[in-house]
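User: For a benchmark we're assembling, each entry needs the component sequences followed by a predicted structure for the full assembly. Here are entry 17's components. Please fill in the structure.
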Amino acid sequence: MHAPTHRERDHLRFLACGAVDDGKSTLIGRLMAETGSIPDDQLANLVHLSKKFGTTGGNLDYALLLDGLEAEREQGITIDVAYRYFGTPKRAFIVADTPGHEQYTRNMVTGASNAEFAMLLVDAKAGLTKQTLRHSRILSLLGIRRILLAVNKMDLVDCAEAPFAAITEDFRKFVSQLSFDQVDAIPIVARDGDNIVHPSKRMPWYKGPTVLAHLETVPVSTHQREEAARFHVQSVMRTDTGGRGYAGYVSSGAFKKGDQIIVARSGRKSTISRIYVYPSEIDSVETGQAATIELADQVDIGRGDIFAPVDAVPEVADQFAAHVVWLNDNPMLPGRTYSLRIGTHTVAATITALKYGTDIETGEHAAVSTLAINDIGFCNLATTEPIAFDPYAKNRETGAFILVDRQTGATSGAGMADFPLYRASNLVKQNYEIDKGYRAKMKGQRAAVVWFTGLPSAGKSTVLNLVEQKLSRRGIHTYALDGDNLRLGLNRDLGFTEADRVENVRRAGEVARLMVDAGLVVLCAFVSPFRNERRSVRERHDAGEFIEVFVDTPLATCEARDPKGLYAKARAGKAFHVTGIDSPYEPPEHPEIHLRTETGTPDAMAEQVIADLARMGIIAR
Amino acid sequence: MTSKLSRHLSNLETEAIVILREAAMAFERPVLMYSIGKDSSVLLHLCRKAFHPAKIPFAALHIDTTWKFRDMITFRDRMAAELDLNLIVHTNKKAIEDGVHPIKSGSAIYTREMKTRALRDALDMHRFDAAIGGARRDEEPSRSKERIFSVRGPNHSWDPRRQRPELWHLYNTQIATDETMRVFPLSNWTELDVWEYILAEDIPVVPLYFAKERPVVERGGSLIMIDDDRLELEPEEKQQNVLIRFRSLGCYPLSAAVQSSAASVADIVEELRTTRMSERAGRLIDVDETSSMERKKREGYF
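Assistant: Structure for entry 17:
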């Protein structure tokens, strides 16, 4: 038995946005109250809260229904996205109430990423503000195609038509350059309920629908009909027939038994032999359904793969261009490696070029070297292995990605893929007969990188110098790479900003990798202050080939030594970005070799390195 | 054959299945928080769907305060046997020895010791790195702010200001060594969605959800069911038989019943469409003070 009244209702996921104090929480609270969606006990609690924290002089303060955190109630602002559920017999709604404060723009982006419709509030008296324009641009970028401009606080302009018409016209002019399909406007007084659920008696000149009537009738379609079918593989499991089943979900289109499919990244083709959803086998699976699929052929498929129809294959590339909204307090650093998550696929990714930043109010492009929190930019990214994607404008589910800070785990960037830069299939790694192992064997040794990291003047180069002498006495072919030396040549275009330091280490790591390929034991001395970049260099080498040596010398000692006068300059305010002073140093957590330089002479430290290298089998005992 | 579910329920189901699989793939030692209630029953059912034909790949953890309704424990053991669950039951035995009591100790101390601390201890003892629970955003205002994948800091603490933005359907499952994750696959479900899904999928639930004449005592305006002889009646209180059911199940002395004649799932769906009371109105532990749920969550409560 089904409950027919509910079955026939559809759902609208929307967000409410706009500047602070424009009345978003009040409007949603009133919509919920007037649709009977607030239970009596919560209403009773609201009476209590309104007395304690209310800003409406004893009247019910509907905003308090939404602002569920203590700090929000105390400060009277929305800090974080709240998701609320309400409904009418015609339609059910999931609304994201997003903060208006500029500093919480990332939460507005979050709300927009999961919405198919947006209600943008403006204050009738204040008119369009920077924040209105900012939010409109984000909505457009995030792919929202229908918006409603709710002109609130009409009572402050005597509920007159002229100011409403003026704001609406200004707004239409502004958004004409953006990509909305439909823009409507309604004059309201959220606090008093005018044109929210009931037509306002104070604004007889307005003949259009109320906010609720508009929400009930605006067309819902999360997916464009022309979107090609996409099935995302989450995991591979043994099935009851002993075959392999690919558990996943359909993000667009449909698949049926007997369909020929292509595995996007490998380009392998097969036919769907079985589709099942517990407890039964089914013939087809469509958008918004999870299922397990079996294929007729044994093909190598894993988590992160996408099945597609053979005539509508996604892009596959390891370099692509994308819009990115930055969400983290730590700025985006081109050259740094982040975790990139797209669909069910996670890979390491680097921003190779930041093409421009977008001025969120004017839409103008400007050259920038980094993105700070809430900034929007257009950039090139490179991934460590090819990813399958669609341009975000064509498919939101397969074009969206996030960038995660590998050190803190923070979700740092919201990305929207645009176009492939270089198709991975065109790039084939050349494999030569004479390889690293052969070259090293000719020299009678094992190739490796010994990477000294530590504060400036910690003694890295001093110890390295001694280690190299000891190794050469043993007949080992070495080469030394040093930060200062590289900066005089290969890296002379780089300064000492965080972004430049990241790139400096990346290049040094690549040179070291080539030298390992040549069969050498490469000794590197770089401050290399960030864990993330040292980890990236490590990941570019084979297991056991990268030996991290932490030259652990207290800052005070380094400063006392100061052979290059660097610390003195920094303290005098004449040098900036000096590690340990005004630039951070992140010590290794698990270095292969840990040198506590204050416990012995440089020679003893070098002997320890030699002993450890022998213990690890890099050199003979 | 297409699903008998409405498009809305089908979308919610898929979202939950996708989340369950992500949790199973991304973490070393995930665990399902099994509280025996309707949300837990739906979660269990979704787990079967998510991993079919394989077995549910993680254990189920029940934090037993020893004050649950007897029917709940019977139901729990029946489900564990039928589904061949790896069921772990954990109780804060020390608190029981110290005499922590749902009424005499006050609900704040009782919840902290028997629920929050017990949960934290169990998660630590088994080194679970992700706990999957049935909490929904429509339950309570601070829940409406909770992420689907919600990071807990050292000692399972929750910092609402440090939450990760959750974009599209892309879940960030990365955690550091001293962090754990709480995962809420039913975040976007409402109480009505849960019951409509139970109806459509014919999912078994504890009989206490269905109306029946049961022995109760009226206390502070609430109807408390007398589930065993541990509930001591005040001199002026008297036991009576009333037609009641429960919308939310917890420890019996702290879970108020509602007067209702809804005796089937279809009846419950119908009742919920017209009720004017929220599901948690009967939860005595929520009404201690404003923001009490948020404070409990900060300390590691579910």
